[in-house]
Design a protein that fits this description.
Archaeosine Trna-guanine Transglycosylase, Chain: A, domain 2; 8-stranded parallel beta sheet; alpha/beta
């Protein structure tokens, strides 16, 4: 079972449970030679990795003891995935062991994730040959499903053809699995064709359920990780830490350096810190290879830890834009990712914990930013105000203001991403006066601002569902900003300082429920859990019956039963597609308070 714990757009920290073993994604499964496991197994434990991958074909061709469990054989009690020999066939020619034979062998040795024998798609193969391979891979998937009770990995192939990637993913998805490695990308990685790899990942994901675990076979260079995980990859594997060490190549998070070309000092690493450059070069070859290999794996794991932290902070887009400047072809891959706007936008919240930092024209093409621009940019002139928040320095409450996002209404000057962004030449004024908002014309501005933001966020004007003459404000004494909006002397909605959007309570939830037709702004749950929702319990995916297609992660939402009776209100963690496709994990956080 797979569930999302944290997310930033398509990137997600997830929990995959298989047969009592757990890995947390995004993660790497280091490739281990089954007959040469040390010192790598010890380092994997040291780095607290939860899984690894080894090759069942090498095991079967080697002197593997009958009846021996693979975990005992490798002295590793974490999750073990096995490959099937497909890549060996691709590299060295046809192998006689068939799909069924390899799947059954993986079953026998106790592999946690069993990979079927797919047909490898070369990037330069003819389309008809690739299509034939897809059909054969699907047939092998059917065969494996009938023969094995294990947790099967169904590889997705298709070369560089977008439609064939989608078709392959859809075919393999129909087998009913959960784990989908994306194959055929290693030759592209070796040629630095990162743009092709990104397109392959996105198009493969388009054919899969959102609840699928996506594994990028062989995509193990840390400089490519930020884009890979932002594209929606959950797991990577790699043997490059060993291969590069054999060649005297040292991994860094921004590229690869040759030991012979280092002139000054070794990169920072716990494996290099006690050595000088000269000492490493003079080591016996085997000892030097081992130290470089350990460093390479350390750098790989450290980069994944950084990315997890960025996901938790909802700062991955900023991090990716910073990192892609390390290589022109990485920037090209990022630009390719941004072209998949319609797909990527579905996973993007309307605000984030982190601000938008401008690093180039690509910043304005991020799905969250582009969605805002497409919706709110006005085709008219606007005044230029260099200090934020704009309304505090505007001369006329009716003004539109010219911003890096285009000309927008002054009413949105404190709403994400306008206030929560940093562009060259802008700054946020801390010492501001709010006395002018006491004047009648600016007091009316605040009232209209509330109405505008409410409509922007919920799709209905506040003044259509309440009498504006009975509306009031609770103003912060320190900043002069609106904190709460009252209606008939009760708090109706709260304006969040973090993103300039509203949080609901039960009073406003009831008003929205009456004003909006089903399923607008709703998650509908099974009636059997109605009493639990009314008690403030969270909404889990397995109980979701329907939801508004326009919901995005982080949205305020009405929680109803499947007869549209209002039960509560909350905040989404997933979009509609994810809520209906995941079978475990939380769909929305219930924010009903016991006092209500």
């Amino acid at each position: 079972m797979f569930e999302i714990l944290h997310r930033d757009g398509p990137a997600r920290i997830g929990k995959l449970s298989v047969g009592g073993k757990v890995i947390h994604t995004p993660t790497i499964l280091p490739v281990i030679h089954p007959f040469k496991p040390e010192p790598w197994i010890s380092q994997i434990r040291e780095l607290r990795l939860e899984g690894l991958i080894t090759n069942s074909y090498i095991l079967k061709k080697g002197n593997y003891p009958n009846g021996k469990d693979l975990h005992d054989f490798l002295n590793f009690d974490g999750m073990i995935m096995t490959d099937s020999g497909t890549f060996q066939e691709h590299m060295y020619g046809e192998i006689k062991e068939g799909n069924l034979e390899m799947v059954q062998f993986q079953d026998q040795v106790g592999s946690d994730i069993i990979t079927i024998r797919d047909v490898f798609s070369e990037f330069d193969q003819e389309r008809e040959e690739i299509l034939s391979g897809l059909k054969e891979t699907y047939r092998r998937g059917l065969e494996a499903r009938e023969a094995s009770k294990g947790y099967l990995a169904y590889p997705v192939q298709g070369g560089i053809y977008s439609d064939l990637r989608i078709e392959s993913a859809s075919l393999m998805q129909s087998l009913g699995g959960e784990y989908y490695p994306i194959g055929g990308i290693v030759p592209l990685m070796e040629r630095y064709r990162y743009e092709d790899v990104v397109n392959i990942i996105i198009n493969s994901r388009k054919g899969l359920r959102t609840s699928s675990v996506v594994h990028a076979f062989g995509a193990g260079h840390p400089m490519f990780f930020p884009i890979l995980f932002l594209s929606g990859v959950d797991v990577v594997d790699s043997s490059s830490y060993i291969k590069y060490a054999r060649e005297g190549r040292i991994l860094t998070d921004t590229g690869t350096i040759e030991l012979d070309e280092i002139a000054e000092e070794l990169p920072p690493s716990p494996y290099f810190d006690s050595l000088t450059l000269d000492e490493l070069r003079k080591m016996p070859e085997g000892e030097r290879r081992e130290i470089i290999g350990k460093h390479n794996l350390y750098v790989t794991v450290k980069e994944i830890s950084k990315i997890r932290e960025q996901i938790r902070k909802e700062n991955l887009w900023n991090y990716v834009e910073y990192r892609v400047r390390a290589h022109p072809l990485l920037l090209g891959a990022y630009q390719a990712l941004l072209k998949h706007y319609e797909y990527m936008e579905k996973f993007e919240s309307r605000s984030k914990k982190s601000p938008v930092f401008f690093s180039g024209k690509e910043t304005l093409e991020r799905p969250l930013v582009r969605r805002f621009i497409d919706k709110e940019r006005k085709r008219r002139s606007g005044v230029v105000i260099e200090r934020k928040p704009y309304s505090y320095f505007a001369m006329n409450p009716a003004d539109f203001v010219r911003t890096p996002f285009g000309t927008i209404s002054l009413y949105l000057d404190e709403t994400y991403p306008v206030a929560q962004s940093l562009f060259p030449g802008e700054y946020y004024e801390k010492d501001i006066s709010f006395e002018k908002f006491r004047n009648p014309e600016w007091n009316d501005f605040l009232r209209e601002k509330v109405n505008y933001i409410f409509n922007y966020q919920f799709g209905v004007k506040l003044f259509k569902i309440i009498d504006k003459n009975e509306m009031g404000f609770v103003i912060s004494k320190n900043t002069g900003k609106i904190r709460n909006v009252t209606y008939r002397n009760e708090i109706l909605i709260s304006l969040r300082a973090t993103d300039g959007l509203f949080s609901l309570n039960m009073t406003s939830a009831k008003l929205l429920h009456a004003a909006l037709q089903y399923p607008k702004l709703r998650i509908a749950v099974d009636q059997e859990i109605s009493s639990f929702i009314k008690e403030g319990r969270n909404v889990f995916c397995k109980f979701v019956k329907e939801a508004d297609r326009e919901l995005r992660p982080g949205d305020e939402v009405l929680i109803v039963d499947d007869a549209d009776n209002l039960l509560s209100y909350g905040r989404t963690l997933l979009n509609r597609e994810e809520m209906l496709e995941f079978k475990s994990g939380m769909a929305a956080k219930n924010r009903l308070k016991s006092t209500e």
